[in-house]
Specification:
- The structure is a homopentamer.
- The model of chain A has no long low-confidence stretch (mean pLDDT about 85).
- Chain A has a seven-stranded mixed β-sheet with strand order 2-1-3-7-6-5-4, with helices on both faces.
- Chain A has about 325 residues and is of the alpha+beta class.
- Chain A is built from ten helices and seven strands.
- Chain A is rod-shaped.
- Chains A and B meet through helix 8, helix 9 and helix 10 of A and helix 7 and helix 9 of B.
Chain lengths: ~325, ~325, ~325, ~325, ~325
């Protein structure tokens, strides 16, 4: 557990529980990173900040869906953030817990970068903590959503790329390899879209409902984060349509290719089978087949074959079958 | 019927109806397991606790969907729980009835384990009954939802496994056996998702609506169960998408494999039919076919055949058909 | 038109219009079966009970969707009931009209059984009419919904049976005959589900909205019917999913079977075409084919054929194509 | 422009603008058919009845979706009606504009029949105009919806017919011709359903919202039209399901027929290819094939062929492939 | 940055920041085109008009979804407009920002035409600015929506054309080329429909919610734009159905064509394979085949072949397979 306590315009960073307790008792504004679970930590949080045991259980222990739970003296918010933003087909989500009190913000998550960045931001501008806990919470959540937008850009690029490959390279034989990517991307978008949808609702609540923990002039900032999540949710819907269209097109292209293959088979069979029949016919060993003794018998049969082949070919062309 | 009556800080367990009646008349807090249907039991419950005949009919007799019915003096809740949590493709649901009064909780279900566990919990902490009937009801419902989460873990494992098999082992011939599993899992998820959705709404009602039977400090605990059901409902939606994607992918893989088979058929026919035709041609019995008398006639025809075969093969490769 | 008028604790059954008019004027509680349309009947109903002409038009004439229309002095309810409950693939729905006034219930439908049963029930317990018109209306609607539940049981049995046949008897050749049943069942479920959904809303209105015609102690009974319709609507959704899954599985099984057929065709062609080519090759009439003069030429060619056949077979097995 | 002005219990029909203006100034109730667009007409309507320029623009000029716009002194309603009711696959919709004021109704549409009928109705019962503008508006809208119901009957008949053809005449070869009909019907139903849905909402508003232009005793009549639209919307949903099921069944039947065709091809190939191979085998020109010299060689080879044919046939029957 | 300031009934066009500032301070109504991002511009807008930094950030910097954000003294609206209206398969959307204050309208977008037109309109009728900022904002948004309707006309023409080609030219071989168009059109419609849906909601808010920036007599004009967007959203839904139907029909046509091809293959194989077998049979070299020595052996075998061919053909016709 590590606390950033504002005292006399300075931010003091400490891990000593007694200091945190005294700072809180003295009404000092602070941001506490909760860190690893321990009986001591749980007990400390419950006693010092008066957090409900169920909330503590949620923070440290269980996997929870995104939600906002207003308690009397604080708001408990769970949001999910992206762990990695390098592969659009893998929406790897991590859980972040934020408790917004009147003089404190407690955060808990296992993703290093966000905490690092927030610490850096706090170090750079101590007045963030001076403005109040809601602003720290906003900065924290803002860092989370900031990772969503580049991820959606990757998703868009990949979705467009896959769609383009499916629709415009219909004749390529290696389309089959697009399948796992298409489904992985769809799944990733579905997961992200659902999360963004929930988190949009949470941010809407934070920016509209009159929580005493969120001062009025902080609300536009939460509405800004709401806009971001709304945009992500919107994009997720759009890209899911794109991927679904690509999958549908893929299936149609498959059927088309099958059609082409069967057409070729039909054409070759329709041409070759009659020719082979004619050849077999004159391969019969009947003693009395006068054609076999014609001087130009071979020419004659080749003529027959050419006529048959041209007829079949023309028939197919006229019927527009090939 | 078996009652756990709180008297002087002690829990008394009894099956004697008169004791229950007297205990209730004396305002003692109690939990009553209703047990098997009997005219006597029905009559007793109606008279002693003032339960509406329709509720008694529902409890003992009919199959009911999950619901919450507030009556004047008590709340009647029906929820469905999982009977078994070993097979993710079989969501085997059992019905549980809970009547929450001001001084009593009546429960009825045919699943042994939950009752056993609740009895054990009560034996371990008699203060559960001291806190009030709402807490006992919460413990009872909490035991129900506790079985949902491991079941969803099984579902997730199975869904991921099936999806992986479909998408990554596309060439295996035994994919066909995945079909019943995929549909059974989908059905199981659909059933569970629908139930979780309803029960989430019931728990939302219990945690938000101002029922006099649910004290204010018990509400966070019902909200906690609400969170669990919300999570189950959420997971059900996610996993249903995963399974649906796997089914769609399965169909696409089927079509792909068909394509491959037809391609092989086309290739072999396109190569062999012309060759057979050439052989049949020179099997004709025309007297005047000078080729037949060439000294290297066989070499010549083999040459023709090789040229035909290579041409067809090249044509297919150039056209990217094989 | 036939009325059941409560006079001095006795139920009088009469078809004489004047008696009905006098009974109504005297404030007697009554249940009137409206019977066939006639100008006289329409006029009588409008004058005696003050029913709006549009309602009378609806009752006697038109086909109407389920609805509830509260007028000042009475509630007009239209619900649809099942005419037959023997064939789950045919949801044969009949229309029933109920007008609930303060001292009267008017009913109209062409389904004999329900009326018969209600008459029997009334004969058995005259106090039903004594309790008030709402109770008679409840009994009437309850008889309607009572037919839904056994129908849904038939639907469930059939859906499970069809699903089982599709998924577990995938190799049977007579699957094709399942198609009309699957679609008929789906259609039946869709029709019933939509109706149950509407009627659930109607019953919710009857049990919750404060209609003066529905006394407070009758509301739990309407809520009970609401529960039944909710259950039917719920089941309809579940069974529709089951049938849809079965249809999807059916299509997948079809595709699979096609795959198998084409595989067999490919295998036989791939084995036989080369063999036939070899035989045709040595059927050529070239004078100079030394093989033809070998003493063990036949053995040699059989050897070649066996090698070709085994090669093809092995190739297919190695590639897992057959 | 043609007005029907009520003066002293008589309906006067006039096209003279000054008369209309004076009649309106004198507070006379009137119905005005607006007729063709002209600068004069627009100007007259705006000045005389105080209609907002945007409404006038909508009435005369633009294509508008169904809507209800309450202005201060009048309600502007746009509904779409069917132009023709002869072909269920063509929902040919025309736009009708109605402005309901306190003493006037303005209507505009290009469909002759409705106006004709309304004129006839007005001529038959002048008290329609006496009752007030809302009643005229109701009669007008009622005439529109009256055309929907026979159209839906045609749709139902066609949908049932197509479904029956698809499901029960699965072996007919001319199913392909059902395709354009199925899709045209679906499109027609979708268009109508969407319109009916909107117009139901408009009528709900007219019958429930407390518009001063709609007297209380006229509301049941608008609710009656609402019921009609609700019924049409309901039917559209049902029939769309029927048609969608028919399309799904059609695709399944197609796949089935393909299966059958491929099975036949496989059977004929599997029987004929080995037989041809056997014949080709004994067509080889090896000098040393002792079978060729057997006295009953032909019988022997026929025997072999019969055995091969029967084996293949039996194999297919045992494996249930044909 | 360029401002159109109303001073003494004249519109003054200026780019000098100080003039704008003085004009705003003097309470002059003005329309300001914000132009390119620059630190100076941002600072100026924030200081002069009191715009929130987050709004300025949104206007100049980020890609935002359509939205309406009421701030205390102004409303911030983001809508998306079409950049080009020439190709219905490409919904190329650009972002437009509008800030509506009490005495000013700020607009920002990178699409030349709209600004040009608005400038022209303003030059033509200076009283637009005199009426107030809401009217200028309305004119601006109206110009945006004006481009949607011709685009939807193109979409409709293309959708109808594609549907017609798919359904009525089922035998044409070049259907494959319709695929990219169908999917591109669907995607375009989906994107536009979603945008129109959002913008409809924004315009509904502008026309209904009591914003002090929108005078009451301007509301019908915003409602008119709302109607336009509602119409576009409605059309998008309709056309999406049309395109989806066309895609479904396309897939069905594909399957049908495949069926036809396979039928031809089956027919030719079923006719030719037995004939070839018969020919091969009499090509066998058995010494003792008396038929071979018949004088009319060839006639006999041709007779057999004709019988076989006719039998197969008749069998196919009787079974309705071809």
């Amino acid at each position: 557990m590590e606390a950033h306590i504002l005292s006399d315009g300075q931010i003091r960073r400490t891990g000593v529980l007694d200091e945190i307790r005294l700072g809180h008792a003295a009404g000092r504004t602070m941001w506490v990173e909760l860190g690893e679970r321990s009986a001591e930590a749980e007990d400390f949080v419950q006693r010092t900040f008066g957090i409900h045991p169920l909330v503590i259980e949620d923070i440290f222990g269980e996997r929870s869906a995104p939600k906002i739970d207003p308690y009397g003296d604080y708001i408990y918010v769970v949001i999910h953030g992206l762990r990695r933003v390098d592969d659009p087909t893998r929406a790897d989500l991590g859980i972040m817990d934020v408790v917004i009190g009147k003089t404190f913000v407690l955060t808990q998550h296992r993703e290093g970068p966000t905490n690092e960045k927030l610490r850096a931001r706090l170090a750079a501008s101590p007045n963030l903590l001076q403005q109040g806990p809601a602003w720290v919470a906003h900065a924290f959540i803002d860092l989370v959503v900031d990772r969503f937008l580049p991820f959606m850009d990757l998703v868009r690029a990949r979705a467009d790329d896959l769609e383009h490959q499916v629709v415009h390279h219909r004749d390529a034989t290696d389309q089959r390899d697009l399948l796992p990517d298409l489904f992985a991307l769809k799944r990733s978008i579905q997961a992200l879209g659902r999360i963004a949808h929930h988190e949009r609702d949470i941010l809407r609540s934070l920016s509209r409902d009159a929580f005493p923990e969120i001062p009025i002039d902080a609300r536009p900032y939460f509405r800004d984060v709401f806009d971001h999540f709304a945009r992500v949710a919107e994009q997720a819907e759009t890209y899911r349509d794109v991927v679904q269209n690509a999958i549908d097109a893929y299936l149609s292209v498959q059927a088309n290719r099958m059609n082409e293959t069967v057409k070729r088979l039909t054409l070759i069979s329709t041409v070759m089978l009659p020719l082979t029949f004619v050849a077999s016919f004159y391969g019969m060993n009947f003693k009395h087949m006068s054609e076999l003794y014609w001087e130009h018998g071979e020419l004659y049969v080749v003529g027959v074959m050419v006529v048959v082949a041209i007829s079949v070919w023309t028939w197919f062309k006229v019927k527009r079958w090939a």
